Task: structure prediction
Amino acid sequence: MSAVDYDVIVLGSGFGGSLLSAILAKSGLAVALIDSARHPRFAIGESSTPLADYTLAMIANEYDLPELLPLTKYGSWKREHAEIGCGLKRGFSYFGHRPETEFGGESQLLVAASSSDESSDTHWLRSDVDAFVFGVAKTHGVTTFEEATYQLHRKPDGWLVDGICDDNAISLQARFAVDATGSAGVVLKSLGIADQTQLLNTNSAAIFAHFANVKPVAECLDDIGVDRQRHPFPCDAAAVHHVLDSGWMWQLRFDDDTVSVGMMFGGRGARPIDTSVDLQVVWQQQIDRFPMLRHQFSVATIVRPKKGLQFAKRVQRLTTTAAGEYWAALPGTAGFIDPLHSTGIAHTLLGVRRLVSILLMAPMNRERQLQQYSDQLINELRLVDELVAGCYAALPSFQLWSAWCMLYFAAVTSMEQADSNTANQSFLRADDVLFREMLIEARAELRLAVADGSAVACDRFEQRLRCLIQPWNVVGLMNAECGGMYSHTAAN
Ligand SMILES: Cc1cc2nc3c(=O)[nH]c(=O)nc-3n(C[C@H](O)[C@H](O)[C@H](O)COP(=O)(O)OP(=O)(O)OC[C@H]3O[C@@H](n4cnc5c(N)ncnc54)[C@H](O)[C@@H]3O)c2cc1C
Result:
């Protein structure tokens, strides 16, 4: 059987691989998109940000894909694509808990990302969104293969894929392959690219699923008499973070009232998860330690995925190289740090945009650009690692955790508010030397505060950080007068 020729083979049809394929096909390339699963299928990584929405809008405009524009804001999404599941995300909500202690209302941080529901960010129900973007790819002429079993072969001048799809033998070849398979890293593995996960500071495990009947935080606060009047937005219409002694929990509420929930274990108090114990038992033990969580989950049930709670022993991974002469990996395949700070969607979209501009160049001009793409991506993932690791190191202090979070907000808001083309900048100021130096100093100060552990040391750290972030503090972060309630941080 002779192989069918393509310009590019994309492995993995999550929203990243599908979007890349759609743009390339729309731009005139012959693209094959192959996935080992079939849409719609469960996927995690659901919380968008202003930077993600801005980048998606830019891509939609640059490459004439207007069908994607409604997904860049909650208002237009609900009007034009009510059938695609999503949730309202007005910002980031954090609640600090102590084991066996009723939440008292003092440990709260709410950071607005959007100023209205209409212009708001969203939680993406990934099974729906990925299926939609996959459909867009098909519409623009991408040849798609779902539930394919195949072998990838490296040839001197490209790639050959042999396999079976829908009971038919398939054989495809292309000069260039994109690895968008996430943790499977099909191209990375076939090339034997070395891994450098051991260099990462963050070390966290995850247990997650989608639940129904999770009581909203707002109702729990009302039940225990905690005043919500100061909240700059309804606290559940957000990426909710419950900050615990051993890690944290995310809660992302969709409009059908199901909630994506994940428990991250990674603080100093976290013990390795005993995999001989039933996951449900580990989950329940953790919930039972915190009165508000107990309350929220008293009648909750798992609705997705069918196989129940999912477990990832260590979620971090990082490759040493993210692109070469005939291949490239998308950001979520090159590495992943942690769900904290919701960096995955925005980073993937930035990576898609960068890769498209390289793949639309003449092949002989690509080599240096691909090297830069790889270096930049890995540098950015290392930065995200620093921004995340400090939060875990700060635990169990909610004060130190919240202060360290401000470094992420300083990076992202200074990017969002810059006049220049945000999507052309390095992600989260990764190539800003002064910002990186400041981070090193901040981490040293954090170590001192953690080692000391006193209230005075925590206050001192906060004051120091306030000075350190000043050059990037364009939205009034760490303003003692707001008492942790930030409304003026909204980007849209
Ligand atoms: C626990 C967790 C929580 C997260 N939370 C967030 C968040 O809140 N916000 C955020 O922005 N990001 C988050 N992320 C990151 C986010 O999931 C990724 O950035 C995003 O999914 C990347 O999209 P993608 O399309 O590149 O890859 P993926 O979504 O990983 O898609 C990979 C695709 O490859 C397919 N595939 C797998 N193996 C093969 C194979 N052998 N051959 C062909 N196809 C294959 C899969 O079926 C899938 O369709 C989270 C990640 C994790 C692990």
Observations:
- The pocket of flavin-adenine dinucleotide is lined by residues 11-17, 34-37, 43-47, 180-182, 184, 186, 206, 208, 262, 315, 330, 332, 336, 339, 342-345, 348 (CB under 6 Å).
- The CA atoms of residues 341 and 408 lie 7 Å apart.
- The longest helix spans residues 366-394.
